[in-house]
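Practice problem 4.
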């Protein structure tokens, strides 16, 4: 049964965000199997309750598909008090182990994503300032600011620069204590510390045992008052000790709903760099570099054709290059302009038949609301949730800009960004919303055919 549980964990790891899997699922061990039940052991009671509330259905489904369809799934907490992950941060510990990062031998230090370096980042007018600022912070060249805050939509390179700065710092001095995590990780760890009476160790880790803090997705902190307060104290402590700090966010601090004025002020007190969508020339350079990394040769005509159509973000360009390579290899076909057009027709053109108006009618019918309520100022959940779903589906299935989408619902650009981030987070934690998105997506796909 141990082998079966290892296989189930492997399957789950491909379906959950890496940090969630590492923090909640990976520590679970198989304990025993009887004719009527399978018992799994969690590190502690808090972990057990969290897993039951959030992942029981997923794990139970995997267990039944593995062949154990007639047994009950039981969770227990460890009968002996095990050291929590915070013990890795006690004074004298040689390394800082983070739940959302893979750890490999490197002089006892954590390892960031080694593929994210400054050398691999394509610089253009849309990101030049953010690139120069993060590189200056990493190299220590005349850095006279409290922190660096990088603002960008998903897929435009802010995480790449954050990792690149951490990699550069560790390359220069491997003994530097670099902490990389998301705001969600920070929140979960603080809650865990409070539940286990280890908040002092938590504070010590971030205020004393940290030389560089790389904190991503600050917009996740919306409405989390206690976490905002704790982070504010932590930032004050790091700033007083002249430590280096990098933040990333999809929203400016003043635009994050229910963000305290104190924390918003701290986040904005350093250098702020915005990353916009790459222009045509930058897209050409990105596509050229991505093609070289995939060991495929593309003519200038193909590169410029792709650049003229792939305008959303870098991930879209990466997908196109990989799709082009795969189609060429599987069909044993030469990469020419016709093949490139076939790929683009799947990634872009197929979306053009769907308009925001189509999506508005579909969503309003599904949730049984008047389509005019998408533009209403009401914040009631009965209208706000369908409005967020509408924005998410428009972003996924049309080529409309965020500004255009904002106009269709009579909202600001920042509100649209927040709606996107909120739905993406809810899809990871709420099966009902995931079902709604999948169902409506299938309806939109049916409309294309």
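Answer key:
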């Amino acid at each position: 049964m141990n082998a079966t549980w290892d296989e189930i964990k492997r399957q789950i790891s491909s379906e959950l965000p890496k940090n969630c899997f590492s923090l909640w699922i990976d520590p679970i061990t198989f304990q025993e199997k009887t004719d009527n039940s399978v018992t799994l052991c969690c590190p502690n009671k808090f972990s057990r309750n969290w897993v039951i509330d959030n992942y029981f259905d997923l794990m139970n489904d995997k267990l039944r598909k593995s062949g154990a369809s007639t047994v009950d799934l039981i969770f227990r907490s460890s009968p002996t008090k095990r050291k929590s992950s915070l013990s890795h941060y006690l004074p004298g510990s040689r390394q800082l182990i983070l739940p959302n990062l893979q750890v490999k031998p490197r002089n006892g230090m954590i390892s960031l994503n080694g593929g994210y370096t400054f050398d691999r980042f394509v610089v253009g007018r849309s990101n030049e300032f953010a690139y120069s600022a993060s590189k200056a912070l990493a190299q220590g060249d005349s850095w006279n600011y409290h922190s660096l805050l990088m603002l960008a939509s998903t897929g435009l390179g802010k995480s790449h620069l954050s990792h690149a700065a951490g990699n550069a710092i560790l390359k220069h001095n491997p003994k530097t204590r670099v902490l990389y995590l998301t705001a969600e990780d920070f929140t979960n760890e603080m809650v865990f510390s409070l539940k286990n009476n280890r908040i002092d160790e938590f504070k010590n880790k971030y205020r004393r045992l940290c030389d560089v803090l790389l904190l991503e997705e600050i917009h996740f902190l919306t409405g989390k008052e206690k976490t905002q307060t704790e982070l504010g104290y932590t930032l004050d402590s790091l700033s007083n000790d002249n430590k280096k700090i990098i933040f990333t966010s999809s929203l400016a601090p003043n635009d994050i709903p229910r963000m305290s004025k104190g924390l918003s002020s701290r986040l904005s007190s350093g250098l702020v760099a915005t990353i916009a969508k790459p222009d045509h020339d930058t897209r050409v350079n990105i596509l050229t570099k991505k093609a070289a990394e995939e060991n495929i040769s593309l003519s200038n005509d193909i590169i410029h054709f792709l650049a003229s159509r792939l305008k959303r973000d870098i991930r879209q360009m990466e997908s196109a290059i990989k799709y082009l390579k795969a189609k060429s290899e599987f069909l044993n076909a030469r990469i020419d302009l016709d093949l490139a057009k076939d790929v683009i027709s799947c990634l872009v053109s197929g979306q053009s038949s769907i308009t925001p108006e189509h999506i508005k009618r579909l969503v309003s019918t599904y949730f049984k609301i008047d389509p005019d309520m998408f533009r209403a100022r009401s914040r009631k959940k009965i209208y706000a949730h369908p409005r967020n779903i509408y924005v998410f589906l428009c972003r996924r299935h049309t080529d409309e800009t965020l500004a255009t989408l904002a106009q269709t619902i009579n909202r600001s650009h920042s509100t649209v960004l927040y709606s996107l981030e909120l739905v993406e987070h809810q899809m990871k934690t709420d099966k009902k919303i995931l079902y709604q998105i999948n169902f409506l997506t299938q309806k939109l796909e049916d409309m294309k055919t």
